[in-house]
Amino acid sequence: MSKFLAGIASFGLVVSPVAAQAQADATVTNTLNIPENATLLGKSDPNVRRATALVNGAVITGTDVDQRTALLVAASDGEIPEAELQRVREQVLRNLIDETLKIQEAAAQEIVVEREEINRRYAQVAAQNFGSDTPKMDAYLSSIGSSAASLKRQIEGEMAWERLQRRQIAPFVNVSEEEVRELLERMEESRGTEEFRIGEIFLAATPATRDAVLENARRIVQQLQQGGSFVAYARQFSDASTAVVGGDLGFVRLETLPAEMQTVARGMQVGQLVGPFEIPGGFEIMYLIDKRQILMADPRDAVLSLKQISISFEPGVTEAVAAGRIDEFGQVVQSMRGCGDVDNVAATVNATVVANDAIKVRDLPDRLQPSLLELQVGQSTPPFGSIEDGVSVLMMCGRDDAAAGSTPDFEEMMGQMEGDRIAKRAQRYLRDLRNDAYIEYN
C-alpha cells in the first residue's frame, strides 16, 4: 500500500514545478542583524515538545498529528525509527497548520468545498486503489492508525487551495504571445539537447544549523534507501517550492540548475538516488526520475506487443530440481519459432502464457528495458524471476517505434507557462497567510 499512500498526497493540486523557483528558495540571504554568538536568555528544553496548535482559533489536536503521521509512516513501510518520529511529527504539524490556513482563507473568500465533493474525491481514490471498495479503504486507514476523516481533511485542503488559486491568482497571471513564441523558438533551437527529470528534497541550512540539517538529510536518505517513498518525504520535509508536487522538478536542462546540482546530475543514471550534497543555502537530495532529448523520439516510448511465458515451482522444491527445470524451460523457449508457436510449445512444459498488445517499454521494470530494446520480433529476453515468484521470459511479437517529438503547440506552451507563474505566486500567497496568522502552541 505504500504506492497508494505516496499517491494520495498529490491527487488534488497539480502545478508545473519550476527549477528557478527551487533555486531561489534555496538561496538564503541573511538580512537580519543576528550575532554569530547569539545566546538564548530563556529556558530551552529539547525534551519538551508542543504537539498541538490553535491556528486563528482552529484547533489542531494531537490525534490530527498522529493520524497524518501514520500516513507517512505507512508510506515508508513502517521503517521510520522511533528516534525519527518526533521530527516527522513536527513537520506534519507544520503541514497541518498550512492546510488549516488554506481552508480558512478559502472560507474568508466565500469559497465553499461541499462535503459531497470531498466524498466524491475520496471515492475516486478508493476506486484507484481498492477497486471502488470505499469501506475497504476506510478499514485500511484505520488499521495503520489513520482515518478516513484525516484523509478527507487533506482532500478538503487541496481542493480549497486549488480553487483559491483559480480565483485569487490565475485571473491576474498574464503570459504574452511574444513570450510563448520566444520559448518555442528556443526549444526548437535546443532540439536534441538532453533534459533530466529530477526529484529533489532540499533542506535549508544556515551556518548555525548546518551540522544538524546534514544529519537529518543523511537519515532521510537512509530511509529512502530502505524503501521509503520519495514523493512522501519530499512533501513532508523539502523546503523547496517543489514539495507540493512531491519534489518533482519536471524535465529541465542542466544549465538551469545550480552548478552543484548540474555536476551531480550529469553522472546519474535513471533511478539513482544521490545525496545529501551541499548547495547554496542548504543540502540537496536528488533522484533521477527520467531523462530524454528535447523534441527527439525516445526509444522507451515504443509500444510493444509481448507474450510472457512463465513457469512456477512447488513449495519446498530443491534448488537442484528447480535449476534443472529452468534449464529445460530455457531450451524450450529457444526452440520457439515466433509468437505463433508460443502457446503450443509452452503447454509441453506446463508454462502459462499472458499477452499484452499495447505496453510501452518505459512502463516495464528498468532492468528489463535494455534487453527489450535490443530484441527483434520473435526473440525473447533471458529468463528472469526466482524460485519463490516463478521464472518468466518475454517474447516480442510486435513493436511500434515512437515518432519523433514535435514542438508543443502554442496553447499547450502558454498553459504551461501560466501554470509555472501561478505556482510561484501561490507560494508567496501562502507565505503571506503564515505571516498574518495567530498561532498558539499547546
Automatic annotation (TrEMBL):
Residue ranges of coiled coil: none
Keywords of the record: Isomerase, Rotamase, Signal
SUPFAM superfamilies according to UniProt: FKBP-like, Triger factor/SurA peptide-binding domain-like
Signal peptide: 1-22
Residue ranges of domain PpiC in the record: 193-290
An MF annotation (GO) of this entry: peptidyl-prolyl cis-trans isomerase activity
InterPro entries named in the record: OMP_Chaperone_SurA, PPIase_dom_sf, PPIase_PpiC, Trigger_fact/SurA_dom_sf
Domain of life: Bacteria
Name the UniProt record assigns to this protein: Parvulin-like PPIase
